[in-house]
Design goal:
Layout (H helix, E strand, L loop, with lengths): L8 E5 L9 H8 L11 E5 L5 H7 L5 E5 L16 H6 L2 E6 L2 H7 L3 H13 L3 E6 L3 H5 L3 H12 L5 H4 L3 E4 L13 H18 L2 H5 L3 E3 L8 H5 L6 E4 L6 H10 L5
Parallel strand pairs: 1-2, 1-8, 2-3, 3-4, 4-5, 5-6, 6-7
Helix pairs in contact: 1-2, 1-12, 5-7, 7-9
């Protein structure tokens, strides 16, 4: 982390878990375990659509932001089952995950559709958390940098200099998501450094220094401190461990080491 230049962000991705009725008890369990966290990081809970409003109210006054896990690229219209960025903002969401590998693999999202959603999110405005990452086969073939670079360039097409600092990038090696496997801190740092270099080439070095890059491959309370100690890893996009308030609090507190 480098708190001199950019925000540390610990974001929980609840995926298709939890009910709205459990948001208050989760908040009551989490908040006492992270006193003063806002001095060292931003905490975000990316909940299912049905729970976002409940998360906003459960954490009211505690400086925890709510986020969504996906959104439509359209503002409104005949798109049954879709949710627009404006609708998310209306219920209190401030962040939205875009391009998660599960959306790409299971629902056919492409770099082009991810780009459309990024542009739509910025217009609302929401803070998009852009997910990029390689498969195990791609890593073993030595093309991680090529894959991740292409994803970033395509996803950020037409995003102007004036907006890029509101984008968060999450590096999530696909082979490490939900598998219990984690990239070594050194490997994660190498890729996050490459991501920042790509951003510097697309924009400039100063803007790239201001963009928070998260690690999103099975970060948990046991490995968080070592990962967060890396200079280009500015936080985590946390999956399973975020469902447990005690484990999630340990990850948030691990980020305090950057002070």
């Amino acid at each position: 982390m480098n708190i001199k230049y950019r925000q540390t962000i610990i974001a929980g991705n609840w995926k298709m878990n939890t009910l709205a009725s459990g948001a208050k008890s989760y908040a009551n369990a989490l908040c006492p375990l992270i006193p003063g966290f806002y001095a060292w990081c931003n905490v975000v809970i990316c909940a299912p659509f049905t729970s976002i409003h409940a998360v906003v109210h459960a954490f009211k006054g505690n400086k925890v932001s709510a986020g969504a896990q996906n959104m439509s690229e359209h503002k409104s219209g005949a798109y049954t089952g879709e949710v627009s960025g404006e609708q998310l903002r209306d219920i209190g969401a401030e962040y939205v995950i875009i391009g998660h590998s599960e959306r790409r693999q299971l629902y056919g999202e492409t770099d082009e559709s991810v780009n459309s959603k990024i542009l739509a999110a910025l217009e609302v405005p929401l803070h998009p958390i852009l997910c990029v990452g390689e498969s195990l086969e791609e890593r073993e073939s030595g093309v991680t940098t090529n894959i991740v670079s292409a994803q970033i360039k395509n996803a950020l097409a037409s995003v102007p200099d004036s907006e890029i600092s509101r984008v968060v990038v999450a590096y999530e090696p696909i082979w490490a998501i939900g598998t219990g496997k984690t990239a070594s801190p050194e490997d994660a740092q190498d890729t996050c450094r490459e991501i920042r270099a790509v951003l510097a080439n697309l924009y400039d070095a100063e803007l790239a220094q201001r963009i928070s890059i998260l690690y999103g491959g099975s970060m948990n309370e046991k490995n968080a401190a070592e990962l967060l100690a890396q200079p280009d890893i500015d936080g985590g996009l946390v999956g399973g461990a975020s469902l447990n308030p005690t484990a999630f609090a340990e990850i948030i507190n691990a980020a305090k080491g950057g002070l």
